[in-house]
């Protein structure tokens, strides 16, 4: 076990256009680009530096990641996982368990209801009560839940991470 907790940022994609050639091809709306950049600035203000990222194959999640990472000044490439697009919570947890062991701050960018349910189920109830209350009131687009986790990624399980912050980014 490492001396500092690992961090996991669970991100719901930013606001997307209502229509596109297909659901997976829907792009971010102009507001979504601004919100994703605001999310990146929020991360930078907290000193978060991602060293691994899982991103759904949908266009809107990839654009969210690109804007968030650029505004946070992160250089890590997002790993686009096609299975994350339609993943349920169990699949998302299985994916997170495959995170490289040396990663300390991991970002996952996906869709609701999976991201909100994942965040609620990861929460061990020992974190920040205000963040828990904020997260329980809704997980809108550009919602970010920041967790601390003390174990190995391979051992990640439900109710194993402390919620330390919840933020809805608006630019």
Automatic annotation (TrEMBL):
SUPFAM superfamilies: Phosphoglycerate mutase-like. Pfam families: His_Phos_1. CDD domains: HP. This is SixA phosphatase family protein.
């Amino acid at each position: 076990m490492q001396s500092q907790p690992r961090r996991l940022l669970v991100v719901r994609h930013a606001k997307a256009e209502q229509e596109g050639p297909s659901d997976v091809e829907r792009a971010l709306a102009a507001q979504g680009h601004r919100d994703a950049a605001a999310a990146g600035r929020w991360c930078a203000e907290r000193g978060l530096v991602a060293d691994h990222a899982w991103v759904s194959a949908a266009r809107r999640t990839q654009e969210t990641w690109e804007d968030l990472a650029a505004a946070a000044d992160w250089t890590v490439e997002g790993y686009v996982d096609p299975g994350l697009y339609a993943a349920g919570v169990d699949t998302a947890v299985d994916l997170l368990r495959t995170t490289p062991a040396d990663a300390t701050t991991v970002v996952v960018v996906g869709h609701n209801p999976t991201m909100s349910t994942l965040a609620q189920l990861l929460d061990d109830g020992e974190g920040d009560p205000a963040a828990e209350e904020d997260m329980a009131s809704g997980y809108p687009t550009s919602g970010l839940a920041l967790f601390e986790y003390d174990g190995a990624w391979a051992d990640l399980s439900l109710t194993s991470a402390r919620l330390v912050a919840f933020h809805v980014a608006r630019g």
